[in-house]
Sequence to fold (179 residues):
Amino acid sequence: MQYVALVVQIGIAIGLFLLWQWLKQLPAAIHKRQEQLYQQQLDRELELLKISQSQIQLRKIEKFMDFAKLQADILTNEAFKARIQKNDPKAVAQLREVVVELGIGLFFFASDSTVREYGTWKTETAQEGVDPIVVLSGLGALMVALRKDVGYEDTELRGSDYLKMFITDWDDVESKIAT
Fold:
């Protein structure tokens, strides 16, 4: 009988020891599980943020390309320029609509400095009798700012690199800008 009581006591002691060990590790296990759940939540949110950023980047590039196409059209499309100069209501309305839409797009998708650069350039170019060289210089600087916004922060290109793609007599124009 004493053997049975001794075996039961040893069994209870071993059981209590094992229960104590399990209880000691329970907070660490709970903490580890909470940590894993939190990491999963962070990973999900990070993935959603990446998707959102990539969609914003695509919209940004789309708006910047629209702006560049409009500027290229103004620089190279003689028929469009003539219609604007003759105050053709449809051409002026089209230009105004595109400029407003692009301004809104730039406001939402461009960096603060680029939005300010665009506002300054638009204000300067809207003045009557503005020097075309000033308009071109501002446009070149704005296009470089847009380029930086799409991810080329360390670009070595200058506004003149953009403008010479559209202006056939670039050497003459560049000498006027430099002076």
Helices lie at 2-76, 78-85, 89-109, 112-126, 132-149, 159-163, 170-178. The CA atoms of residues 59 and 109 lie 7 Å apart. The longest helix spans residues 2-76. The two ends are 114 Å apart (CA to CA).
